[in-house]
Structure formats: structure tokens, C-alpha cells
UniProtKB/TrEMBL annotation:
The keyword Protein transport does not apply. The chain crosses the membrane at residues 20-37, 49-67, 73-92, 99-120, 140-161, 182-202, 208-227, 258-278. Complex of an alpha and a beta chain; in Rhodospirillum, the alpha chain seems to be made of two subunits. GO terms for molecular function: NADP binding; proton-translocating NAD(P)+ transhydrogenase activity. This is NAD(P) transhydrogenase subunit beta. It is a multi-pass membrane protein. Residues 21-480 form the NADP transhydrogenase beta-like domain. It is an enzyme of class 7 (translocase). Keywords: Cell inner membrane, Cell membrane, Membrane, NAD, NADP, Translocase, Transmembrane, Transmembrane helix. It catalyses: NAD(+) + NADPH + H(+)(in) = NADH + NADP(+) + H(+)(out). It comes from Altererythrobacter rubellus. Belongs to the PNT beta subunit family. Its main location: membrane.
Length: 483
């Protein structure tokens, strides 16, 4: 009975019942993909589900639409596939955040191109009335889809430049930026409303859509440049959400159920993840998406710091204390990723366990430059999933730990987040490494600070020994000393 209802509804919409069922199956696979990607142990299966769902969606779309030139589509898909596989194989794990941002920009640009194509030739998309004018609901879909896509594109470009080091990670704070951003967003919504209420068609008419596109490209830049590096993981997740909503809007324009389902899943899951990460960083979700609303124009990491005494040790010192310990908690950060030290770290972990030492890994929700960055690196080095713990699951264990081994992390272990109300990271949950009996802290030099640009009192604690070196080199030296 339910299938007959589906068939009649599909026939009324001009889409075969089997295609609607195929899109539904593809949607189920996409949901299974998201479920699988929620855990490192099931992430490979999640990727496979996503690939299978996308294959079903693409084949169904090609089979149910009139194709002007299947050869051209095949060539375009082949070129895109070759480029995607080549980039994915060559990209370093440390460059994964900027790769994700780059891919988000392409999704946004695709939404803009499809929207403009529908605006120029609406009859081919089936979105016109008897008079040949674009339907009002389609004008709303076009305006929103193009605007969200343009914001995603330009914002992702800035995120890519910041994450790849081609642009400073420091916030670029324009005068009256909040007024400018809010005014531009209101103007975009106003233009979309005006365009929807007009009778504008495609071709040379309805120039309002061009103004919407230009303004949306502009606001994408303006929203991301004031956001500092410490908030970049949230930005990547947020842009992922934007790309999903852009795809969903274009799905309505194209009448493609798979795009609507996929876009809604990506958009909602990205928004939820962004909210969770903002809570983990004690950031306001609204302030981040509004473009660095909470940033202080006078703050920054360039302030002169008072010279304070600290203890410096060697690889031999660390090896001796590590093999004498009963419990070691390792906190990896972006410095580990840059140095590609995860494989050496896994080797050190294996040697300590052979000596009877209990070793655990503590991962902060915003460690690295994108959600799950550290988890991916540890998985690449074949670290067992059951040794990796989130902040809320392991933070209470530092009081029983003999050694807290910090490698390339900074802001996520900074006690200023708990004690200094003037600190830009105040209120962010951090690891209680100060409760461990011994702390080893690997960083390149004492001159550097974390991505948030603030000094760290952990450097100067009585139980802290600084290991000043490249992370990979230092861990390899510790491995040699353990051997």
C-alpha cells in the first residue's frame, strides 16, 4: 500500500517510482555513512556506505533525466575523478584541513554555477510558469542557493589560505566589521525577497540575482577574515554545513531528491558538529558564524612576554622517567601533525607497553585544524582505538598519571582557560595536566605560543620539563634511549 502511494506521488511529479525508491536507498546509505564516520573503528565502513550511496544517486539521476550529451558528462566525471584521486593520494595528512576547505569551496562554486544556469535558461530546468516567467518559489530557491553557495566559496577560500599558511592565521579586524557584515547580510536577504516578489525571468532580466551573487561573495570573505586560527576547526565544520544547505537549495531547483536529502544531511550534521565544538571551546556559536564577534582588536600574540625560569631536559631524561612510570597519558597536538611524529610516537608507545607501562592518548575536541584531525593521524599510525580517549572521558585520570606527555599541543593544556578571565581562551575546557606527577612538553622553542597567541603557565611548573626540539626528532631520540 505504501509503495502504491509512493508510485502515484512519483508519477505526479514526473519521477518514476523506482527512482524515488533508489533515492531513498541512497539517503539511507548516506545516513549509515554519517553513523560510521562517528567512530574511528567504523570510519572505513562509513566511507564505503557514502561511496555506494553516491553511486546509486548519480546513476539514478543519469537514468531518469534527458541527457544532451552523455559523452561530455562522462568526460567531465572522469576528469573530476582523476583529479580527486590524484589529490587525495598525494596530500599529506597535515594538509587535510586545507584540502577539506578547498573541497568546500568547490561545492559552493558548483551551487552558484547551477543557480546562474537555471536563471539564464529557466525553461530547461522546468521552473517557469505558462508565461515563461520563473516561478516565485523557484526564485526563492535560486536566491538562497546562490547566496549560500557564494558565501561558502569565498569563505572556504579564505579558510584554505589561512590553514595552508598562505595567509596569516591572525584575525584581520576591519573597522565597524559587525555593522558591515550585518548590513551586507540584511541587504542580501532584502534582495532575495525583492527578486522573489518580482516577475523577473532569465536572460537579460532580473539583474537582482547578479547583485545577490556579488554581495554573497563579498560577505563570505568578510565573515572569515576576522576569525583567528584558534577557531578554525569550527570554521571548517561551519563551512561544511553551508555547503550542505547550498546543495539542498539547488536540489529543490533541479527537482532532485538525492541532492535535497544529501544537502540536508550535510547541512544539519555540520551545524550540530559546529555547535558541539563551540561548546567544547566555550565559544558562542552565533559569535563565530557572525565573523569573530568576540575578537578583541587589541589582543594578539605579539605582546612582549616576561622571561620566566623553566627546566629543560633531554631525550635520555624523558626515556628514564617514562620507563619508570606506571601510567602515561599522551596529549598530541598540531605540532605532532606538522612534524609527522605519529609513527615514532606509536613506536614509543609500543616500547613502553612492553616494559609494563600503561599508555593512553588524550584527544581534545579542537586539537589540530579540523574535527578529528588527531584521531585520523593516530589511526594512520595504527594506534589502537581503545587507547584513544576524549577530554571528558580521561581528564579525571591525570591526577593518577605519573607522566603527562605533551607533543605539539598548547592551548588545550593551558590553565589560563580556567583562571585568567582576560585570556582569549578563558572558559574553554582543557586537560588538567598540572595534576600529573611529571610533565614532559615537546615544542620547538620557548619563543612560540599556541594558535590563540597566549603564553602557557605549564611551561614553568615545577614538575614540567621542556623538550625543545622538532617533535619527530625528539620522539625518535626517546625511542633510541628506551632501546
Amino acid at each position: 500500500m505504501s509503495f502504491s502511494i509512493l508510485a502515484s506521488a512519483a508519477d505526479g511529479a514526473g519521477t518514476p517510482a523506482w527512482a524515488m525508491l533508489a533515492y531513498l536507498i541512497a539517503g539511507v546509505f548516506f545516513i549509515l555513512a554519517l553513523r560510521g564516520l562517528s567512530s574511528p573503528a567504523s570510519s572505513r565502513a562509513g566511507n564505503r556506505y557514502g561511496m555506494l550511496g553516491m553511486l546509486i544517486a548519480v546513476v539514478t539521476t543519469l537514468a531518469t533525466h534527458e541527457i544532451a550529451n552523455i559523452a561530455e558528462i562522462g568526460i567531465a566525471m572522469s576528469l573530476g575523478g582523476v583529479i580527486g584521486v590524484t589529490v587525495a593520494r598525494k596530500i599529506a595528512m597535515t594538509a587535510m584541513p586545507e584540502l577539506v576547505a578547498g573541497f568546500h569551496s568547490l561545492v559552493g562554486l558548483a551551487a552558484v554555477v547551477v543557480g546562474l544556469a537555471a536563471w539564464l535558461d529557466p525553461a530547461s530546468f522546468g521552473i517557469t510558469d505558462a508565461a515563461g516567467q520563473i516561478l516565485m518559489v523557484s526564485r526563492v530557491e535560486l536566491g538562497l542557493g546562490i547566496a549560500i553557495g557564494a558565501i561558502t566559496f569565498s569563505g572556504s577560500v579564505i579558510a584554505f589560505l589561512k590553514l595552508s599558511g598562505r595567509m596569516s592565521g591572525n584575525p584581520i579586524l576591519l573597522p565597524m566589521r559587525h555593522v558591515i557584515n550585518l548590513g551586507t547580510l540584511v541587504a542580501i536577504l532584502g534582495m532575495i525577497a525583492a527578486y522573489a516578489m518580482s516577475g523577473a525571468g532569465g536572460g537579460g532580466e532580473g539583474q537582482m540575482i547578479i547583485y545577490i551573487t556579488i554581495a554573497a561573495f563579498l560577505i563570505g570573505f568578510l565573515l572569515i577574515i576576522p576569525i583567528g586560527g584558534a577557531d578554525m576547526p569550527v570554521v571548517v565544520s561551519m563551512l561544511n554545513s553551508y555547503s550542505g544547505w547550498a546543495a539542498a537549495a539547488m536540489g529543490f531547483t533541479l527537482g532532485n531528491t538525492a541532492m535535497i536529502i544529501t544537502g540536508a544531511l550535510v547541512g544539519s550534521s555540520g551545524a550540530i558538529l559546529s555547535y558541539i565544538m563551540c561548546r567544547a571551546m566555550n565559544r558562542s556559536f552565533i559569535s563565530v558564524i557572525a565573523g569573530g564577534f568576540g575578537a578583541d582588536d587589541s589582543s594578539g600574540g605579539g605582546e612582549a612576554r616576561e622571561a620566566r625560569p623553566y627546566k629543560q631536559g633531554s631525550a635520555e631524561d624523558a626515556a628514564f622517567m617514562l620507563e619508570q612510570a606506571e601510567k602515561v597519558i599522551i596529549i598530541p597536538g598540531y605540532g605532532m601533525a606538522v612534524a609527522q611524529a605519529q609513527h615514532a610516537l606509536r613506536e614509543m608507545c609500543d616500547m613502553l607497553e612492553e616494559k609494563g607501562v600503561e599508555v593512553k592518548f588524550a584527544i581534545h575536541p579542537v586539537a589540530g585544524r579540523m574535527p578529528g584531525h588527531m584521531n585520523v593521524l593516530l589511526a594512520e599510525a595504527s594506534v589502537d582505538y581503545d587507547k584513544v580517549f576524549e577530554l571528558e572521558d580521561i581528564n579525571s585520570e591525570f591526577a593518577q598519571a605519573d607522566v603527562a606527555f605533551i607533543i605539539g599541543a598548547n592551548d588545550v593544556v593551558n590553565p589560563a582557560a580556567k583562571t585568567d578571565k582576560s585570556s582569549p581562551i578563558y572558559g574553554m575546557p582543557v586537560f588538567d595536566v598540572d595534576k600529573a606527577k611529571q610533565v614532559f612538553f615537546i615544542k620547538r622553542s620557548m619563543g612560540g605560543v599556541g594558535y590563540a597567541g597566549v603564553d602557557n603557565d605549564v611551561f614553568y611548573m615545577n614538575q614540567t620539563v621542556m623538550l625543545l626540539s622538532d617533535a619527530k626528532k625528539m620522539v625518535e631520540e626517546i625511542v633510541k634511549a628506551l632501546d
